[in-house]
Amino acid sequence: MNSIENWNETIAHLPGASILQTQEWAQIKSAYGWEPIPRVWKSPQGELLAAAMILRRRFQLRGIALPVSLLYVPRGPLLNWSDKALAVRVIADLEGLAKTQKALFIKIDPEVVLGWGVPGREEARENPDGQWVQSQLNLRGWQYAVEQIQFRNTAILDLSGDEEGWLTRMKPKTRYNLRLAERKGVKIRQASEHDLGLLYRMYAETSVRDGFIIRPESYYRQVWSTFMQKGMAYPLIAEVEGEAVAGLVLFVFAGRAWYLYGMSRDVHREKMPNYLLQWEAMRLARQLGAREYDLWGAPEVFDESDSMWGVFRFKEGLGAQVVRTLGAWDYPVAPLGYRLFTRVIPRLLDVMRWRARRKLRREVSV
């Protein structure tokens, strides 16, 4: 398949079908220097077995394209990873593609589950199929990526059962805060495209407070608007007496929902608006056909030393289950160039992030 026409319908029934593998995500990335390369794998009888929306980025020097590139498969490839013959076939084909494309390397970060639950706790379980995939990547010369683009681990809410069951799975403190938000007059409304500027301003305020870097407003407007127009994104805003205090953007595709963007302000935090916001997101997700809700991100290390620990405790309180995955892995086609790239790029990114953080602080403080 050399076209992304009808791509979403093609991948919707594959295991792990992700919002980051959709044609909309590829089209957005194409506006920022990435070229989509869709690939599918079929059986001899023509049955679809696997797919990957691969993104290629060419290196440039002073505006001149160089004959070198990198490849990235966000949250892919998509396949049944317990089918070992198919897994080897897909991995080998991606290695071959990286070589023919003269890429420095190809990066994948598929949803290959290594285990469920917090390590060390009674409920923790390991997944032998995931462990096998990891061993195969090691044997074939893949390397655990220095630059992890997406979160390696996440927390997922099961949306089956009734709402009473959801409440039962929550921590007592979470249920208390949810009811507190209702008593204190927090209201949740679905936002429109007219609210995207407001959502970005809250997101910028959140990034400065919590110390993470975000992109320019134009990028988020394009992402949110594109998916909203396709009925795949639904922004929600929490208000207190008509004043916006928090928000999120809910993404839905192929029976799954994702919490990719969340934002909050420093006003009325004692009224616990984020609890009611997530509750309404859960309800909306199921109305839209989602069977599970990915809260997008859990700690790399499950203790208080991890910067995500506080956010994780909030997600855990909602009743979410930890899913530990493979993370991003790189296959170096040109080992020397890859080593140089992975040493230099992180340093450049640190400088760029420092500059972006300083610029954003100035803008938010105005």
Write the layout of secondary structure elements.
Blueprint: H1 7-11, H2 23-30, E1 35-42, E2 48-61, E3 64-73, H3 84-100, E4 103-108, E5 113-116, E6 125-126, H4 128-139, E7 143-144, E8 153-158, H5 163-169, H6 172-183, E9 186-190, H7 196-210, H8 217-229, E10 233-240, E11 243-253, E12 256-264, H9 273-287, E13 292-294, H10 309-317, E14 321-325, E15 329-332, H11 335-365
Parallel strand pairs: 3-4, 12-13
Antiparallel strand pairs: 1-2, 2-3, 4-15, 5-6, 5-14, 7-15, 8-13, 8-14, 9-10, 10-11, 11-12
Helix pairs in contact: 6-9, 7-11
Description:
This protein is an alpha+beta fold. Helices cover 39% and strands 27% of the residues. It is built from 11 helices and 15 strands. The chain has a 9-stranded mixed sheet with strand order 6-5-14-8-13-12-11-10-9, with helices on both faces. Helix 6 (172-183) crosses helix 9 (273-287) and helix 7 crosses helix 11. It is globular and about 60 Å long. The chain starts with 6 loop residues before the first helix and ends with a helix. The relative contact order is 0.14.
Structure characteristics:
6-stranded mixed sheet; FEMABX; aminoacyltransferase activity; Aminopeptidase; 11 helices; 366 residues; alpha+beta; 2 domains
